[in-house]
Amino acid sequence: MKTFVHRGQVTKVVFGSGTRNRIPEEADVLGCRRVLVLSTPDQADQADQCADLLGTAAAGTFTAAAPHTPVEVTEKAVAHAGSLGADSVLAVGGGSTIGLGKAITARTGLPQLALPTTYAGSEMTPILGETEGRRKKTRRLPEVLLRTVVYDVDLTLTLPPAVSVVSGLNAMAHAAEALYAEDRDPVAFLMAGEALDALVRSLPRIVRRPDDTEARADALYGAWLAGTCLGTVGMALHHKVCHVLGGTFGLPHAQTHAVVLPHVVAFNAPAAGEAMARISQALPGDAPANALFQLGGQLGAPTALRDLGMPESGIEQAAELIVQNGYWNPRPVDRDAVRTFLTRAWAGEAP
Ligand code: NAD
Q1: Are residues 180 and 149 part of one domain?
Q2: What is the separation, in whole angstroms, between the first and last Cα of the chain?
Q3: Given 11, 65, 166, 235, which residue has the most CB atoms within 10 angstroms?
Q4: What single DSSP character describes residue 274?
Protein backbone atom coordinates (compact mmCIF):
# COMPACT_ATOMS: atom_id res chain seq x y z
CA MET A 1 0.00 0.00 0.00
CA LYS A 2 1.24 3.49 -0.82
CA THR A 3 1.38 6.05 1.96
CA PHE A 4 2.28 9.62 1.14
CA VAL A 5 1.86 13.32 1.77
CA HIS A 6 1.14 15.54 -1.25
CA ARG A 7 1.39 19.32 -1.08
CA GLY A 8 -0.82 21.20 -3.57
CA GLN A 9 0.45 24.31 -5.30
CA VAL A 10 -0.80 27.82 -4.60
CA THR A 11 0.47 29.30 -7.87
CA LYS A 12 -2.02 30.07 -10.66
CA VAL A 13 -0.64 28.91 -14.03
CA VAL A 14 -1.70 30.24 -17.44
CA PHE A 15 -0.14 28.41 -20.40
CA GLY A 16 -0.28 29.09 -24.12
CA SER A 17 0.78 31.34 -26.98
CA GLY A 18 0.23 35.10 -26.85
CA THR A 19 -0.67 34.71 -23.17
CA ARG A 20 1.54 37.69 -22.19
CA ASN A 21 -1.43 39.80 -23.28
CA ARG A 22 -3.25 38.46 -20.21
CA ILE A 23 -0.70 40.01 -17.85
CA PRO A 24 -2.71 43.23 -17.25
CA GLU A 25 -5.79 41.15 -16.37
CA GLU A 26 -3.83 38.80 -14.11
CA ALA A 27 -2.20 41.74 -12.32
CA ASP A 28 -5.60 43.35 -11.87
CA VAL A 29 -7.09 40.15 -10.40
CA LEU A 30 -4.34 40.28 -7.74
CA GLY A 31 -5.09 43.95 -7.05
CA CYS A 32 -1.71 45.07 -8.42
CA ARG A 33 -1.80 48.70 -9.54
CA ARG A 34 1.93 49.57 -9.65
CA VAL A 35 3.93 46.66 -11.08
CA LEU A 36 7.74 46.82 -11.21
CA VAL A 37 8.94 44.79 -14.22
CA LEU A 38 12.22 42.88 -13.70
CA SER A 39 14.70 41.46 -16.24
CA THR A 40 18.39 40.92 -16.92
CA PRO A 41 20.19 43.56 -19.03
CA ASP A 42 19.88 41.14 -22.01
CA GLN A 43 16.11 41.13 -21.77
CA ALA A 44 15.56 44.85 -21.10
CA ASP A 45 13.57 45.14 -24.36
CA GLN A 46 11.15 42.44 -23.21
CA ALA A 47 10.78 44.22 -19.86
CA ASP A 48 9.92 47.47 -21.70
CA GLN A 49 7.35 45.62 -23.83
CA CYS A 50 5.71 44.19 -20.70
CA ALA A 51 5.66 47.64 -19.08
CA ASP A 52 3.93 48.94 -22.22
CA LEU A 53 1.40 46.11 -21.99
CA LEU A 54 0.67 47.02 -18.37
CA GLY A 55 0.15 50.66 -19.29
CA THR A 56 -0.80 52.75 -16.25
CA ALA A 57 -0.37 49.68 -14.00
CA ALA A 58 3.41 49.70 -14.68
CA ALA A 59 5.48 51.45 -12.00
CA GLY A 60 8.73 51.08 -13.99
CA THR A 61 11.45 48.56 -14.82
CA PHE A 62 14.56 47.21 -13.11
CA THR A 63 16.80 45.47 -15.65
CA ALA A 64 19.91 44.49 -13.66
CA ALA A 65 19.00 40.94 -12.54
CA ALA A 66 22.16 38.78 -12.35
CA PRO A 67 22.95 35.06 -11.92
CA HIS A 68 22.79 33.59 -8.41
CA THR A 69 20.81 36.56 -6.97
CA PRO A 70 23.57 38.74 -5.48
CA VAL A 71 22.22 40.58 -2.40
CA GLU A 72 23.66 43.91 -3.55
CA VAL A 73 21.51 43.76 -6.70
CA THR A 74 18.46 42.87 -4.59
CA GLU A 75 19.09 45.83 -2.29
CA LYS A 76 19.17 48.20 -5.28
CA ALA A 77 15.98 46.67 -6.66
CA VAL A 78 14.20 46.97 -3.29
CA ALA A 79 15.22 50.64 -3.05
CA HIS A 80 14.03 51.22 -6.63
CA ALA A 81 10.70 49.50 -5.89
CA GLY A 82 10.28 51.69 -2.80
CA SER A 83 11.07 54.92 -4.65
CA LEU A 84 8.47 54.05 -7.32
CA GLY A 85 5.81 52.98 -4.82
CA ALA A 86 5.62 49.53 -6.47
CA ASP A 87 3.01 47.15 -5.05
CA SER A 88 4.14 44.02 -6.95
CA VAL A 89 6.84 42.64 -9.26
CA LEU A 90 6.66 40.92 -12.65
CA ALA A 91 9.75 38.89 -13.61
CA VAL A 92 10.32 38.46 -17.34
CA GLY A 93 13.12 35.95 -17.81
CA GLY A 94 14.80 32.86 -16.45
CA GLY A 95 15.86 31.71 -13.01
CA SER A 96 18.08 34.75 -12.41
CA THR A 97 15.25 37.24 -12.84
CA ILE A 98 12.67 35.14 -11.00
CA GLY A 99 15.21 34.70 -8.19
CA LEU A 100 15.49 38.47 -7.90
CA GLY A 101 11.70 38.69 -7.70
CA LYS A 102 11.67 36.13 -4.86
CA ALA A 103 14.41 38.00 -3.01
CA ILE A 104 12.31 41.20 -3.26
CA THR A 105 9.21 39.33 -2.03
CA ALA A 106 11.20 37.91 0.91
CA ARG A 107 12.21 41.43 1.99
CA THR A 108 9.06 43.41 1.21
CA GLY A 109 6.13 41.00 0.96
CA LEU A 110 5.34 42.31 -2.56
CA PRO A 111 3.55 39.61 -4.61
CA GLN A 112 5.32 38.29 -7.72
CA LEU A 113 4.02 37.33 -11.17
CA ALA A 114 6.32 35.88 -13.84
CA LEU A 115 6.65 35.31 -17.55
CA PRO A 116 9.33 32.53 -17.59
CA THR A 117 11.54 32.45 -20.68
CA THR A 118 13.83 29.48 -19.90
CA TYR A 119 13.22 25.90 -18.69
CA ALA A 120 14.90 26.29 -15.25
CA GLY A 121 11.62 26.01 -13.31
CA SER A 122 12.30 28.48 -10.49
CA GLU A 123 8.86 30.04 -10.99
CA MET A 124 7.19 26.96 -9.48
CA THR A 125 9.34 26.64 -6.35
CA PRO A 126 9.55 28.22 -2.89
CA ILE A 127 13.35 27.98 -3.13
CA LEU A 128 15.38 31.17 -2.81
CA GLY A 129 19.12 31.00 -3.46
CA GLU A 130 21.07 34.18 -2.72
CA THR A 131 24.75 35.07 -2.99
CA GLU A 132 26.60 37.25 -0.52
CA GLY A 133 30.32 37.62 -1.20
CA ARG A 134 31.25 34.20 -2.62
CA ARG A 135 28.74 32.26 -0.51
CA LYS A 136 25.44 31.07 -1.91
CA LYS A 137 22.75 30.29 0.64
CA THR A 138 19.59 28.42 -0.36
CA ARG A 139 16.36 28.42 1.64
CA ARG A 140 12.81 27.12 1.20
CA LEU A 141 10.43 29.98 2.01
CA PRO A 142 6.73 29.30 1.31
CA GLU A 143 6.09 33.06 1.29
CA VAL A 144 8.15 33.55 -1.90
CA LEU A 145 5.94 31.24 -3.97
CA LEU A 146 4.73 33.14 -7.00
CA ARG A 147 1.09 34.18 -7.18
CA THR A 148 0.69 33.85 -10.94
CA VAL A 149 2.88 32.32 -13.66
CA VAL A 150 2.03 33.08 -17.28
CA TYR A 151 3.84 30.77 -19.70
CA ASP A 152 3.93 32.29 -23.17
CA VAL A 153 5.71 30.02 -25.62
CA ASP A 154 6.36 32.98 -27.94
CA LEU A 155 8.84 34.43 -25.42
CA THR A 156 10.94 31.26 -25.51
CA LEU A 157 11.53 31.32 -29.28
CA THR A 158 14.53 33.63 -28.85
CA LEU A 159 16.30 31.34 -26.35
CA PRO A 160 19.36 30.20 -28.34
CA PRO A 161 19.35 26.41 -29.08
CA ALA A 162 22.52 25.78 -27.04
CA VAL A 163 21.00 27.53 -23.99
CA SER A 164 17.68 25.75 -24.59
CA VAL A 165 19.45 22.38 -24.47
CA VAL A 166 21.26 22.94 -21.16
CA SER A 167 18.18 24.60 -19.66
CA GLY A 168 16.09 21.60 -20.75
CA LEU A 169 18.63 19.19 -19.22
CA ASN A 170 18.46 21.28 -16.02
CA ALA A 171 14.70 20.63 -16.01
CA MET A 172 15.29 16.92 -16.65
CA ALA A 173 17.55 16.85 -13.59
CA HIS A 174 14.69 18.17 -11.41
CA ALA A 175 12.44 15.45 -12.82
CA ALA A 176 15.01 12.65 -12.44
CA GLU A 177 15.65 13.47 -8.77
CA ALA A 178 11.90 13.81 -8.10
CA LEU A 179 11.48 10.20 -9.27
CA TYR A 180 13.63 8.95 -6.37
CA ALA A 181 13.00 11.75 -3.83
CA GLU A 182 12.64 10.66 -0.21
CA ASP A 183 9.24 12.37 -0.04
CA ARG A 184 8.11 11.50 -3.59
CA ASP A 185 4.41 11.07 -4.01
CA PRO A 186 2.32 9.54 -6.82
CA VAL A 187 1.47 12.94 -8.33
CA ALA A 188 5.09 14.14 -8.34
CA PHE A 189 6.14 10.80 -9.88
CA LEU A 190 3.58 11.18 -12.68
CA MET A 191 4.60 14.78 -13.32
CA ALA A 192 8.31 13.92 -13.34
CA GLY A 193 7.82 11.09 -15.84
CA GLU A 194 5.65 13.27 -18.08
CA ALA A 195 8.27 16.05 -17.86
CA LEU A 196 10.99 13.66 -19.04
CA ASP A 197 8.83 12.43 -21.93
CA ALA A 198 8.09 16.00 -23.06
CA LEU A 199 11.71 17.17 -22.87
CA VAL A 200 13.14 14.07 -24.58
CA ARG A 201 10.66 14.58 -27.44
CA SER A 202 11.10 18.31 -27.81
CA LEU A 203 14.78 19.18 -27.30
CA PRO A 204 16.07 17.43 -30.47
CA ARG A 205 13.36 19.22 -32.47
CA ILE A 206 14.38 22.60 -30.99
CA VAL A 207 18.01 21.98 -31.96
CA ARG A 208 16.90 21.26 -35.54
CA ARG A 209 14.41 24.13 -35.72
CA PRO A 210 14.55 26.70 -32.89
CA ASP A 211 11.37 28.39 -34.17
CA ASP A 212 9.29 25.17 -33.99
CA THR A 213 6.49 26.53 -31.80
CA GLU A 214 4.99 23.10 -31.05
CA ALA A 215 8.35 21.74 -29.86
CA ARG A 216 8.91 24.91 -27.83
CA ALA A 217 5.50 24.51 -26.20
CA ASP A 218 6.25 20.86 -25.39
CA ALA A 219 9.58 21.82 -23.77
CA LEU A 220 7.93 24.60 -21.78
CA TYR A 221 5.23 22.16 -20.64
CA GLY A 222 7.96 19.75 -19.50
CA ALA A 223 9.76 22.60 -17.75
CA TRP A 224 6.60 23.58 -15.88
CA LEU A 225 6.10 19.99 -14.69
CA ALA A 226 9.77 19.61 -13.72
CA GLY A 227 9.73 22.94 -11.86
CA THR A 228 6.61 21.83 -10.01
CA CYS A 229 8.44 18.66 -8.94
CA LEU A 230 11.39 20.73 -7.73
CA GLY A 231 8.96 22.85 -5.72
CA THR A 232 7.06 19.98 -4.13
CA VAL A 233 9.57 17.23 -3.30
CA GLY A 234 13.11 17.24 -1.95
CA MET A 235 16.14 16.91 -4.20
CA ALA A 236 19.23 14.76 -3.53
CA LEU A 237 22.87 14.21 -4.54
CA HIS A 238 22.66 15.72 -8.04
CA HIS A 239 21.42 19.10 -6.81
CA LYS A 240 23.96 19.05 -3.97
CA VAL A 241 26.83 18.40 -6.43
CA CYS A 242 25.70 21.23 -8.75
CA HIS A 243 25.25 23.62 -5.83
CA VAL A 244 28.78 22.92 -4.58
CA LEU A 245 30.37 23.17 -8.05
CA GLY A 246 28.50 26.37 -8.91
CA GLY A 247 29.28 28.03 -5.59
CA THR A 248 32.91 26.94 -5.26
CA PHE A 249 34.15 27.34 -8.82
CA GLY A 250 31.60 29.76 -10.27
CA LEU A 251 30.53 27.21 -12.90
CA PRO A 252 27.50 28.12 -15.04
CA HIS A 253 24.25 26.75 -13.58
CA ALA A 254 22.45 24.91 -16.39
CA GLN A 255 25.64 23.64 -18.08
CA THR A 256 26.80 22.11 -14.79
CA HIS A 257 23.48 20.29 -14.42
CA ALA A 258 23.85 19.00 -17.98
CA VAL A 259 27.31 17.53 -17.33
CA VAL A 260 26.65 16.07 -13.87
CA LEU A 261 23.24 14.39 -14.35
CA PRO A 262 24.34 11.14 -16.09
CA HIS A 263 27.06 10.59 -13.48
CA VAL A 264 24.75 10.95 -10.48
CA VAL A 265 22.09 8.80 -12.16
CA ALA A 266 24.75 6.10 -12.68
CA PHE A 267 25.72 6.33 -9.01
CA ASN A 268 22.13 6.20 -7.74
CA ALA A 269 20.88 3.57 -10.21
CA PRO A 270 21.44 0.49 -7.96
CA ALA A 271 19.30 2.08 -5.23
CA ALA A 272 16.50 3.59 -7.33
CA GLY A 273 14.99 0.86 -9.51
CA GLU A 274 11.54 2.40 -9.99
CA ALA A 275 13.04 5.74 -11.00
CA MET A 276 15.44 4.08 -13.45
CA ALA A 277 12.56 2.16 -15.04
CA ARG A 278 10.69 5.44 -15.60
CA ILE A 279 13.78 7.15 -17.08
CA SER A 280 14.17 4.16 -19.42
CA GLN A 281 10.54 4.52 -20.47
CA ALA A 282 11.35 8.10 -21.56
CA LEU A 283 14.73 7.18 -23.00
CA PRO A 284 14.57 3.54 -24.14
CA GLY A 285 17.58 1.49 -25.15
CA ASP A 286 20.69 1.88 -23.07
CA ALA A 287 20.93 1.98 -19.27
CA PRO A 288 19.44 5.32 -18.01
CA ALA A 289 22.78 6.98 -17.19
CA ASN A 290 24.29 6.11 -20.57
CA ALA A 291 21.11 7.08 -22.38
CA LEU A 292 21.23 10.51 -20.68
CA PHE A 293 24.92 10.89 -21.56
CA GLN A 294 24.21 10.04 -25.19
CA LEU A 295 21.24 12.39 -25.33
CA GLY A 296 23.44 15.26 -24.07
CA GLY A 297 26.05 14.41 -26.71
CA GLN A 298 23.46 14.28 -29.51
CA LEU A 299 22.08 17.66 -28.42
CA GLY A 300 25.57 19.20 -28.37
CA ALA A 301 25.53 19.83 -24.60
CA PRO A 302 28.83 20.16 -22.73
CA THR A 303 30.02 16.85 -21.26
CA ALA A 304 33.14 17.86 -19.29
CA LEU A 305 33.45 20.00 -16.15
CA ARG A 306 36.93 21.04 -17.30
CA ASP A 307 35.33 22.74 -20.32
CA LEU A 308 33.17 24.78 -17.91
CA GLY A 309 36.25 26.12 -16.12
CA MET A 310 36.63 23.71 -13.19
CA PRO A 311 40.28 23.11 -12.24
CA GLU A 312 41.33 19.46 -11.90
CA SER A 313 42.79 20.34 -8.50
CA GLY A 314 39.26 21.23 -7.36
CA ILE A 315 37.97 17.63 -7.53
CA GLU A 316 39.23 16.72 -4.05
CA GLN A 317 37.85 19.90 -2.46
CA ALA A 318 34.49 19.41 -4.18
CA ALA A 319 34.27 15.78 -3.01
CA GLU A 320 34.94 16.92 0.54
CA LEU A 321 32.21 19.60 0.39
CA ILE A 322 29.69 17.28 -1.28
CA VAL A 323 29.79 14.75 1.56
CA GLN A 324 29.43 17.46 4.23
CA ASN A 325 26.11 18.44 5.88
CA GLY A 326 24.00 15.29 5.75
CA TYR A 327 21.18 15.24 3.21
CA TRP A 328 19.01 12.46 1.90
CA ASN A 329 20.06 10.36 -1.11
CA PRO A 330 18.75 6.95 -2.18
CA ARG A 331 22.28 5.53 -1.95
CA PRO A 332 24.69 6.46 0.86
CA VAL A 333 27.31 8.89 -0.41
CA ASP A 334 31.01 8.58 0.39
CA ARG A 335 33.99 10.69 -0.61
CA ASP A 336 35.75 8.05 -2.71
CA ALA A 337 32.66 7.42 -4.82
CA VAL A 338 32.11 11.15 -5.34
CA ARG A 339 35.77 11.66 -6.27
CA THR A 340 35.52 8.82 -8.79
CA PHE A 341 32.46 10.13 -10.61
CA LEU A 342 33.65 13.75 -10.44
CA THR A 343 36.91 12.70 -12.09
CA ARG A 344 34.97 11.15 -14.97
CA ALA A 345 32.66 14.16 -15.23
CA TRP A 346 35.65 16.50 -15.18
CA ALA A 347 37.28 14.66 -18.10
CA GLY A 348 34.03 14.26 -20.09
CA GLU A 349 34.05 10.45 -19.88
CA ALA A 350 30.87 8.37 -20.08
CA PRO A 351 29.38 7.56 -16.63
P1 NAD B 1 19.25 32.89 -16.52
O2 NAD B 1 17.97 33.37 -15.95
O3 NAD B 1 20.50 33.33 -15.86
O4 NAD B 1 19.27 33.25 -18.07
C5 NAD B 1 20.46 33.06 -18.83
C6 NAD B 1 20.60 34.15 -19.87
O7 NAD B 1 19.65 33.92 -20.91
C8 NAD B 1 20.30 35.56 -19.33
O9 NAD B 1 21.16 36.49 -19.90
C10 NAD B 1 18.87 35.80 -19.80
O11 NAD B 1 18.55 37.16 -19.94
C12 NAD B 1 18.88 35.09 -21.14
N13 NAD B 1 17.56 34.63 -21.56
C14 NAD B 1 16.62 34.04 -20.80
N15 NAD B 1 15.55 33.75 -21.55
C16 NAD B 1 15.81 34.17 -22.81
C17 NAD B 1 15.07 34.12 -24.02
N18 NAD B 1 13.89 33.55 -24.12
N19 NAD B 1 15.65 34.66 -25.11
C20 NAD B 1 16.90 35.18 -25.07
N21 NAD B 1 17.64 35.23 -23.94
C22 NAD B 1 17.10 34.73 -22.82
O23 NAD B 1 19.30 31.29 -16.62
P24 NAD B 1 18.45 30.14 -15.92
O25 NAD B 1 19.18 28.89 -16.22
O26 NAD B 1 17.02 30.25 -16.28
O27 NAD B 1 18.53 30.46 -14.38
C28 NAD B 1 19.70 30.19 -13.63
C29 NAD B 1 19.55 30.74 -12.23
O30 NAD B 1 18.32 30.33 -11.69
C31 NAD B 1 20.63 30.26 -11.28
O32 NAD B 1 20.99 31.31 -10.42
C33 NAD B 1 19.94 29.15 -10.52
O34 NAD B 1 20.50 28.94 -9.25
C35 NAD B 1 18.54 29.68 -10.44
N36 NAD B 1 17.51 28.63 -10.29
C37 NAD B 1 16.75 28.66 -9.18
C38 NAD B 1 15.77 27.73 -9.00
C39 NAD B 1 14.92 27.80 -7.77
O40 NAD B 1 13.99 27.02 -7.62
N41 NAD B 1 15.20 28.71 -6.86
C42 NAD B 1 15.53 26.75 -9.97
C43 NAD B 1 16.32 26.74 -11.11
C44 NAD B 1 17.31 27.70 -11.27
Answers
A1: no
A2: 35
A3: 65
A4: H
Q: What SS3 state is found at 135?
A: strand
Could you tell me if 262 and 231 lie in one domain?
yes
Instruction: Ligand 1: list residues with CB < 6 Å.
Output: 40, 42-43, 67-68, 93-97, 99, 117-118, 120-122, 125, 127, 129, 155-156, 158-159, 163, 167, 230, 253-254
Last residue of a domain, one of 156, 177, 198: 156
pTM above 0.70, yes or no: yes
> What confidence tens digit (pLDDT) does each residue in 294-346 have?
999 999 999 999 999 999 999 999 999 999 977 899 999 999 999 999 999 99
Q: Quick one: 174 and 281 in the same domain?
A: yes
Tell me the residue length of the chain.
351
Q: Which domain does 80 fall in, by range?
A: 12-156
Within 13 Å and on the Cβ side, how many CA atoms surround 236? 23
CA-closest residue to ligand 1 atom 28: 95
pLDDT tens per residue, range 151-205: 999 999 999 999 999 999 999 999 999 999 999 999 999 999 999 999 999 999 9
